[in-house]
Amino acid sequence: MSTAVVVILLSTCLHALAETSDPKDQIGHYKRLRNELFQKELEMMLGSDIVLTDNEQKANDIIMELKNAVVDDGFTNPRHFNFSKHFFEYKDQLTDTMLYRILRDMPKGALLHAHDTGILAAEYVLNITYWDDLYVCRVEDEIEYLFSSNTPIKYCKTKWVPMKEVRYTSGNVKKFDSDLIRRFSIVVDDPAAEYPDINTVWSKFSNYFISTTPLLTYKPAWEFYFYETLKAAREEGIMYVEIRSVLPSLYDLNGEIYSSVDTAKSYKDVLDKFMKNFPDFYGAKLIYAPHRRVSDETVEQYVQIAQQIKRKMPDFLAGFDFVGQEDLGRPLAEIAPQVLELAAEMNFIFHAGETNWYGKSSDENIIDAIALGTKRIGHGYAITKHPALMEEVKNRDIALEVNVVSNAVLGLVADVRNHPLATMMARGLPVVLSSDDPGVWGADILTHDYYVAFVAVASRHADLRLLKKLAKNSLYYSTISDKDKALHEFEIRWTKFIGRLLKDKWSYF
Amino acid sequence: MSTAVVVILLSTCLHALAETSDPKDQIGHYKRLRNELFQKELEMMLGSDIVLTDNEQKANDIIMELKNAVVDDGFTNPRHFNFSKHFFEYKDQLTDTMLYRILRDMPKGALLHAHDTGILAAEYVLNITYWDDLYVCRVEDEIEYLFSSNTPIKYCKTKWVPMKEVRYTSGNVKKFDSDLIRRFSIVVDDPAAEYPDINTVWSKFSNYFISTTPLLTYKPAWEFYFYETLKAAREEGIMYVEIRSVLPSLYDLNGEIYSSVDTAKSYKDVLDKFMKNFPDFYGAKLIYAPHRRVSDETVEQYVQIAQQIKRKMPDFLAGFDFVGQEDLGRPLAEIAPQVLELAAEMNFIFHAGETNWYGKSSDENIIDAIALGTKRIGHGYAITKHPALMEEVKNRDIALEVNVVSNAVLGLVADVRNHPLATMMARGLPVVLSSDDPGVWGADILTHDYYVAFVAVASRHADLRLLKKLAKNSLYYSTISDKDKALHEFEIRWTKFIGRLLKDKWSYF
Asked: Could you say which residues form the signal peptide (chains A, B) (predicted)?
């Protein structure tokens, strides 16, 4: 062996020895590797590409102090930590906190996943029951509603009575109204007992829509509800809305019945009126999203309706989707071939993977949604069980419309720290936050979802950059017409918000 | 423009047109892409590299029919689906099924994550209370135990009475024993009410260990318990065990107190005896795993004990770890520097990330465990929130010791379909299944964990290949001395099991 070789071998050996047995170097090696992994994780997180200005950094300090107080207290006293409990137990406590008020004031960009008649609080529906010309047919515990200029001729097992008469002869108007309020939401005192499994809560949830339909499809009520939706969204820092609708037939006092296309037109008219009154709003579009649990013939009708709307209101239609509990409805694989012809004219924005089944049709709807070229995925809750699909949505830039509170309330996850959104954010997947049907569970339009996602689901390290990223994403992944202008305007409003927070944080107290 | 260019452009254009607007081709494109994604997912799944023989394929058909009957019924009737309920509600129903009996009989390789005094059912502990020389000191509802040749001189607020006397003057021995059984497990009728948060269940869990310690650290009881553990493991198709122990001081009737090293030696002696009686067993090793919630001085003592055991029983010591609730204990980052010197002599097999916090120390223990060069990770529940760490364990081939039932019972996850194991298996991460402390929650040594992971957590598509992979992994990632021989023997036993199943599947009915 040559001397050179011996020297090289010896040096390698000594180096290896030093690496493994010198305790000081071992600690150095461990610390370097630890830091490397830690930084790598931070860099992958959603929002890590956002660079904060000095002012934003100051605002971040305020926000993180509030967030981490909640997290650290929960870590020490899990009993204090609300987010491992049911949403109904803590939702009203949240609204009373400084962090909530800050998040409520924060510009949030767009609301991209919300179902038209489930957005507003029960009080709005109650308001409609005070309107003239409302009749009710009560059979045991069931109430049917109908607006009519005269006593309705529709069959009633008992008889149609004017709502006013029923209410004011009830003896206790307050109790009468609070009973109604309970019918106009799924909030209950003991959700564990009343909703023992997912189908029970979905059944109550579906009943909400069925029972409110005759109230809300009265054309003036329909238009009132949408107008108020836009107003409430605007008040929560939302500048643009994409609303999903099954587009039911509306009716009026003259007994006229309207088509789905008319219903879409009615939305467009309300929007035009709203934009006149609030020109700082950035508009709304419609996602036509009829029921998935229907026959092939009905799907064929949906296609025609979608095409008609596209022809009449090309800029107003954002896309096409199907709604209804995926576990019980028809899988995309079954109904997709029939709607594929729509792809040339409009976006698909499909619900997929709103389930905790794995390897069943509702789970695999995500594969179909992607293969069908969906622009975004509604929910995508199941996607973290599909590493190849996570790659795919990242590469194709398909946004996931995540609705944390909805998933918790509708029985997918008990402790929201187990919500797959954590993994999605950690991977830096294209995520937008939304709220699905916040009114049905007594949540605000979008703020509860931001609070829960930010404080309870995201990493303790996730900060203002995540919040800003989520808000910007909602515009970026929308189908808004002048996206650049909207994003620019968002920055202006964001800067103003940071200014307000820095000027007087105690105004949020 | 040259003709050639025009032709190329035209052809490209026509091709693009055909791609997007010919409905038949659109459907073809969608179906191809769908199939491609679906196959890609299947190929990434844990177990996809296993090729089944014809006989295994037949056995697979039997097993999948049983599995999918459960899954499909649950999909249609979520109320029937046990695995979204608490483990205590369904554990005894499982053992009475054909699939359970098949899984119980199936060779499972190694048991790699189990804590020595929490493995056997409460009945084993009860058995020990029937032994001679046991005294009890009862103060209100508390019972203290002590084996002693004479009435113990240790302080007792009331007085030490022979257990036999207490039991046979209790008036109702059956009730007396069933009261004891309740003390020797954490199983309760209404877990939601009794364990409202994670600390409550951990407190009851810790109390189990505290209260049984004086019973089980009686040297003959200690040796009996370990011998029976090995026997029970062997009966469930386990051929090799790595047991975690805090190595408490043992005592005997003569009042002698033994050191931790003696305790390790006592395990080694029991093992030697067991191997003589059951030469078909493949042995056991010790993971020395003392408490994490201790002072620096105590950690220093741990290091010395570990080194002494390594010197005296080099082949018996599999590695070093810390135990105790991670959220409350000291983070690895804090205690690691002190134990780093052990790395040259033994494996680290650290608990890490047994938590649903994200961005807190218990979560980030995973980073430290990896940076410290851990061979395997105990639990790693939180890892799916860390994409970079998932890459790291895959590249470094660090196995995750997953304990689904334990995580459910100890309050990390309610519906096991949300358990991160689903994501780990989907990603093909190196996973081994284990059971942590099955006796404490009335589970079998390993079969409940296999059942729950296979039927409720894994994809509906996951089949016998997953089961075989999990079993083989447990040997592959172990520190067993002659790994090749053990893996070869496993294949022989596996083939016999497949033979038994095919010969008479109804024997499992």
From this structure: 1-18
Of A295, A358, A147, which is closest to residue B74 (Cα–Cα)? A358
pLDDT single digits (tens) A33-65 = 999 999 999 999 999 999 999 999 999 999 999
| A360 touches B460 (CB < 8 A) | yes
Q: Which of helix, strand or coil describes residue A474? A: helix
pLDDT for A22? 67
φ and ψ at residue A57, rounded to 5 degrees = -60, -40
Contact call for A336 and B30, based on CB within 8 A:
yes
For A418-428, what is each residue's pLDDT tens digit? 999 999 999 99
Residue A19 has pLDDT above 80, yes or no: no
Amino acid of residue A420: P
CATH superfamily, domain B78-120+209-505, is Metal-dependent hydrolases (3.20.20.140)
Q: What is the pLDDT of residues B301-332, one digit of tens each?
A: 999 999 999 999 999 999 999 998 898 889 99
Total count of residues recorded for chain B: 509
Q: Does A16 touch chain B (CB under 8 A)?
A: no
Q: Please, which residues have CB within 8 angstroms of residue B22's CB and are 6 or more apart in sequence?
A: none
pLDDT recorded at residue A297: 95
Interface contact B27, partner A, CB < 8 A: yes
Q: Which of B56, B144, B242, B354 is catalytic?
A: B354
Residue A257 dihedral angles phi and psi, to the nearest 5°: -110, 135
ipTM attached to this prediction = 0.93
- Can you name the CATH fold of A78-120+212-505? TIM Barrel (3.20.20)
Domain boundaries, chain B: 78-120+209-505, 125-184
Longest Cα–Cα distance in chain A: 111
Say which DSSP state A257 is in.
Answer: B
Secondary structure class of A307 (helix, strand, coil): helix
When pLDDT is cut at 50, 70 and 90, the band that residue A18 belongs to is: very low
